[in-house]
Amino acid sequence: MRKLVALLLCCFVSVAHAQLTIEITQGVDNPTRIAVVPMGWNGSTPLPEDVSAIIAANLQRSGQFDPVARTSMLSFPSKDSDVFYRDWRIMGTEFLLIGDIEERGGRYYVTYHLYDVLGQRKVISAGQVDGGAGQLRDVAHHISDKVYEKITGIPGAFATQILYVEAFQNTGTQDRFRLMLSDADGARPRMLLESDQPLLSPTWSPDGRQVAYVSFETTRPAIFLQSLATGQREQLTDFTGLNGAPAFSPDGRQMAMVLSKDGNPEIYTLDLRTRQFTRITNHYAIDTEPSWTADGKGVVFTSNRGGKPQIYKVTLASGRVERLTFEGEYNARGRVSLDGKTLVMVHQRDGVFHIAAQDLTTGTLRILTETNLDESPTIAPNGAMLLYATRFGGKGILAAVSLDAGTKYRLPSKQGDVREPAWSPFFN
Amino acid sequence: MITKAMKQGLSFVFVMAFLAGCSSTDTKTDSDADAGANGGVNTGTANGGSLGSSDGSEEGMEELETVIYFDFDQAVLLPEARSLLLAHAEQLRGTNTSVRLEGHADERGSREYNMALGERRANAVRDFLVLQGVNRSNLEVISYGEERPLALGSGESSWSKNRRVEIDY
Questions:
Q1: How far is B87 from chain A (nearest CA, A)?
Q2: pLDDT digit string (tens) for A276-326?
Q3: In terms of domains, do B82 and B156 share one?
Q4: How far apart are CA A137 and CA A400, in angstroms?
Q5: How far apart are CA B118 and CA B144, in angstroms?
Q6: Which UniProt keyword terms apply here (chain B) (predicted)?
């Protein structure tokens, strides 16, 4: 059967027309005014990407910046000597980013400066970054990260990527499922896998080099591991029943998952080197959706052992299980932030499914989203935003919200139903 | 799966078998137009085969509903499901007919939890049939969670159709 299933394995096949476009729906109250001046460029042909526009869009999407429109700029300095603070001060600009792009031997070299306009000082002096012909977006994301960190004190996560599943399901036609990879802003979507059987639960290895997911291509669910660089795949599980919800441990040595081979859905860990499976939970109820705590010593999971789905945590060394959520009748698919302070989850209130965040110290739960049918929250590696799946205009889309709920934006898809985002780690 | 749409409106195994055969032409047309996605043909063929065998096994076979419905976040059989399953058990008892029990959930809540819930539902159907004397080894359970809705769209009218177990002869 396996060989009959249409399965198109593509490593970095461009699907340009399916790009997700951003719609910002809410930003913070007093965003920082920043002018991102078009970068100087003396080449004979236009650059393939507008680096400054990408940087401005990145900063705006974070919700913490209000980029100055180009049409409002009084001058377009690209060199340090061309900067006059008063041109920017009179417009209420707080920060100014300028830069110059040169091309040598097919490679772009960017020099950029960031100014504190009110303080009349340079805060980044002659930052340098270079990239090949196809890497101007990466260059823009890199500069965005530097600017964001300099001003907010938080590392930027613009140079990261996301995985997601795109599904095409219409009455009377064959279902199609695609595992997609794109930049964090939805640009440059690439198809990693296509199948006519369900694909779900994509997740990253902590080094960002591999992805794992569940595929029904064998007519039953199985967990697969796939290298991003080579496209090489490996089937990790082939048990009777559920084979789902893969989650790499923070050190990348183990994978937690759900298996129901012994009759009930239970959490297991797989040692990726020895290929040894260890059963972690033991309960007749549903235990599923494992996710590691940042220190790798515990796994949070969803269980309906209390009658309704709630989130629990098991300490691996002792096997001790504790319940983490108590508010509401449906809390599921928890993810713990990297600082260990916040648990985000799917939370039902008044029959509506939202994304909520619970402070793990105080226990206070806060609903972050106003949309309905929200699921699959995934936190950015800098902890500032989370992506989730929701429905908008009758379609599955991805949306983002900051962990303080102050900033919101949507990444609607022009094509199929988009779902199950997984935000990459930092690539170092 | 091309037969998914056909299955939606059809309750009778007999009719399903008949139409699954007919629909193979549509399947090919669809996949031709789709250029490259020819998986529908394979899936359709596999389905048509199993449906055909049940059609031929007993000419006057009882016309039974093949979808069992459930309440939200529940895997407990409803009273009407029990009477239907008794009829299926009657039909299956003492035979070697292989049946695939496909568990499903509506779109609400999280996907992997729904995957487990779909399995719970299919297990409930399996356990009931086994208690009624059906050979357990002839019953295969698989869950698709919320990945294969019968009715597209959001709202209770769709959700109630999607919280189900399909008995696939």
A1: 26
A2: 999 999 999 999 999 999 999 999 999 999 999 999 999 999 999 999 999
A3: yes
A4: 21
A5: 7
A6: Cell cycle, Cell division, Cell outer membrane, Lipoprotein, Membrane, Palmitate, Signal
pLDDT at site B54: 41
Is the same domain home to B151 and B104? yes
| 3 state DSSP class of A260 | coil
Q: Which residues of A touch B20 (CB under 8 A)?
A: none
Smallest Cα distance from A410 to chain B, Å: 20
Preferred mutation among B7, B147, B156, B161 to probe A, highest tally of A CBs within 10 A: B147
- Residue-wise DSSP of A67-133: EPPGGG-S----SGGG--HHHHHTTT--EEEEEEEEEETTEEEEEEEEEETTTTEEEEEEEEEEE-G
Q: Which of A291, A372, A110 is nearest to B109 (CA)?
A: A372
- Is there a single domain that holds both residue B91 and residue B52? no
Which residues 6+ apart lie within 8 Å of B33 measured at CB?
Answer: none
C-alpha dihedral, A195 to A197 to A202 to A208, nearest 10°:
-30
Same domain? B33 vs B116: no
Using a CB–CB cutoff of 8 Å, tell me whether B144 touches chain A: yes
The reply to whether B8 and B81 lie within a common domain is: no
Number of domains in chain B: 2
What average pLDDT does range A57-72 have in this prediction?
94
Cα distance between residue B85 and residue B65, in whole Å = 9
Q: Which of B136, B147, B144 is nearest to B166 (CA)?
A: B144
Q: Spell out the domains of chain A, with CATH numbers in brackets.
A: 27-152 (3.40.50.10070), 162-423 (2.120.10.30)
Distance separating alpha carbons of residues A326 and A92, to the nearest angstrom = 47
What confidence category does residue B61 fall into, taking pLDDT thresholds of 50, 70 and 90?
low
Q: Does the distance separating the beta carbons of B112 and A258 come in below 8 Å?
A: yes
Find chain B residues with C-beta within 8 A of A166's C-beta: none
Q: Are residues B14 and B51 in the same domain?
A: yes
Q: Which residues pair with A99 in a beta bridge?
A: A112
- The verdict on residue B62 lying in a domain is no
Can you give the residue range of the structural domain that contains B18? 3-57
B112 with B163, same domain: the answer is yes
Is residue A26 very low, low, confident or very high in pLDDT (cuts 50, 70, 90)?
Answer: confident
Place of tokens 């270079």: A130
How far apart are the C-alpha atoms of A287 and A265, rounded to whole Å?
A: 5
- For all residues of chain A together, what is the average pLDDT? 93
Q: pLDDT tens-digit profile of A130-175?
A: 999 899 999 999 999 999 999 999 999 999 999 999 999 987 889 9
